[in-house]
C-alpha cells in the first residue's frame, strides 16, 4: 500500500508493523492498534472511524470477456464463473443489483472460493472469472485496464469502510494521521 509509504514519509518517527488479511483480528491477543474493515464492528466497545461509503463493482478481465462474453443483465451471471469470497464461514454468493426496472438478487456459482479478497482480485485479473468487490479493491486494476467494469447500468449496495480501534486508548496521533490520509485517498478514488 503506497499510502503507508506516504504516511511514513510525512511522519519519519512513526513505525509500522503491518499484518495483512481478511480475517477479523483479535485485537488484544494479536496486539493490534487498528484495523481497516468493511462494515460496522460487531463489538460496540470498539472505536470506529468512518472512512468512506463506496459502491461494489462487478468486473472481469478483457481475456475473460473475449473468451466467455459479457453479461448484459445480472441474471446472466448464473451462466458465468463468479469468483467468490468466504469470511467467517459465510459464503458471499448472492450478488445484489438494482436499476429502474427493479432489484435483483442473483445466487452465483464458482469453481474458485477464497477467504482472501486479494486472491479473488488476482483470479479476476488472470481471467478466471467475474469478481464483485468494492471500488477501492479494484481501483488500480480498473484504471490500468486489467479489469473492465461489467453491468454499469445496474447499481449494487454500497459498503462502508471503517478504521477500527479496540478502545479509546489506542486512538493516538498516529491513528488520527492514518485516518485522515485514508479519508483523503479513498475520497479521491470514490469521486473519480
Described by its quaternary structure, the protein is single chain
* Strand segment tally: 11
Gap from first CA to last CA? 19 Å
* Average residue pLDDT: 88
Class from helix and strand fractions: alpha+beta
Biggest sheet features:
3 strands, antiparallel
Q: Order the strands across the largest sheet as they lie in space.
A: 1-11-2
The residue fraction in helices comes out at: 25-40%
The tally of helices reads 5
What overall form do the CA principal axes indicate?
A: elongated
Strand content: 25-35%
Order of helices and strands: HEEEHEEEEEHEHEEH
| Rg of Cα set | 18 Å
* Unreliable residue runs: none
Family: Belongs to the LysR transcriptional regulatory family.
InterPro entries: LysR-type_TF_proteobact-type (IPR058163), LysR_subst-bd (IPR005119)
Protein name: Substrate binding domain-containing protein
Pfam families: LysR_substrate
What does this structure look like?
- This is Substrate binding domain-containing protein.
- InterPro entries: LysR-type_TF_proteobact-type, LysR_subst-bd.
- Belongs to the LysR transcriptional regulatory family.
- With 192 residues, this protein is of the alpha+beta class.
- It is built from 5 helices and 11 strands, in the order H-E-E-E-H-E-E-E-E-E-H-E-H-E-E-H.
- It has a 3-stranded antiparallel sheet.
- Strand 6 and strand 7 form a beta hairpin.
- The protein is elongated.
